[in-house]
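Field reference: sequence -> structure
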Amino acid sequence: MFLEPSEIFFIPILALSSKVLYYVLLNTLQYSLVGNKNFNNYFYREDIMALTISESGGGNYEQVPVGTHNATCYMLVDVGTHDETFEGETKKRHSIFIYWELNDSKMSDGRPFSIMKQYTLSLNEKSALYKDLCAWRKKRFTDEELKGFDLTSVLGVTCDIEVGLTSGGKAKVTSVYSPDGGAKKVTTVNEQIAFDIDEYVEGKKEMNSAWVDLPSWVQTKIDDSFEVKARDKKSMDDHLSKADTQAEGDFKSLEALSDDKEEMFPPKSELTEDDLPF
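Structure field:
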């Protein structure tokens, strides 16, 4: 059976319609996967690191006691950059969460209480992180340290913290300083974790595994960061670019097919019975 020349005319139109439909379906897939959560993490998951973090809002949530506590840092979470508004002014803020477990106070199930504080990731001398680290270390930073201080060095290091209450009645860390006798390096009950968002964006396996075990609200905070959104946009742009290249190639092939229609499908007037396949 042969196609009429008039039928060949519709092949490029059909190809163009298929291309449009392809983009609609691809963008729908992008929204459902990237718009909600970073789905690539699950392809890299290996061993799960055990964390014993209590999330506020849970039915069994126990409030950290107000007062002075001896504590040990066990986790650092770089949550990336976000827009934050204070007193009507919106600025980009790169934040890190520092978690401590209390050495002198336990929950009803025997695990140590844990508490965290959010800091701007900066060693500017006016920043809260700079002030707390100086008090914790009992010394100021040298010029060399300010060029690049390894924050993971505080993991497993003891300190004293003051716990107060927010206006909403929740526990918060109000100050951090060196304990009597100086800070010591100790073993923690919780797994010691340092979550680096740059390595997470690069797809490092250990960071993807660590992400899986973070509290859900921290996962959301990370995946809402400018760093992760930029990574996901670049990944989707790359997919769309490849798809566009493939679609253009298919379209050109169909155009070539249309141009060669006279050679591929000779007019019926030129056909003989011997030319018919059946």
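Note: The first helix runs from residue 5 to 8.
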